[in-house]
């Protein structure tokens, strides 16, 4: 009789296990990024006990100096492991553990609420997608991710999977409205000359070009009558332009062809 109860219990567990597996294979909709705002929750309660020598790194093209407001940046999740079956979830939070910015999915990923996750298990464990920074200053952003390295046998409860977490952060480059300098620049992208149009005809400013490592690549003083900058010797790439007057600062993204 006892054996019959055990057998019936196992039969009941089969559809439940299948449901949990199917729901995870297409990414998780609930909080599993490992972030503080998600309570540190991951999928380790099911995907654990194994060892694929897994590790994960998050990289971005956000400049060393920080992100601009309402700007798109590429986020990369790269996994190193001996597994050929991976899944992930990632969230972006500020120091108050509040989700900030919005995501646009890339290949193999989908947006799930205010997080991003996989669509199908990935062989490589690598994903790239877009994060748009908030339109108001919400402070430093930290990206948190949890990645599962699985054995691919379809059983999330066999104690042979591994879950790893990672994070990276970047400051905000936003400036208080009272000290914000408005300016136009054209053409953008540019190959030879870049024109900076200041809002006031009497302003004199210093224009600094920073590459994505935070290195100062070029600095030029301009005025209303002398507002063209020779960028021919700049290496091709994306720069953060910081224009500084006596009491104001403005920043924009510039692309050198």
Automatic annotation (TrEMBL):
The keyword Zinc-finger does not apply. InterPro entries: Reeler_dom, Reeler_sf, Secre_tail. Keywords: Signal. Residues 1-20 form the signal peptide. It comes from the Bacteria. Residues 185-255 form the Secretion system C-terminal sorting domain. The keyword Signal applies. Residues 67-147 form the Reelin domain. This is T9SS type A sorting domain-containing protein. It comes from Polaribacter pectinis.
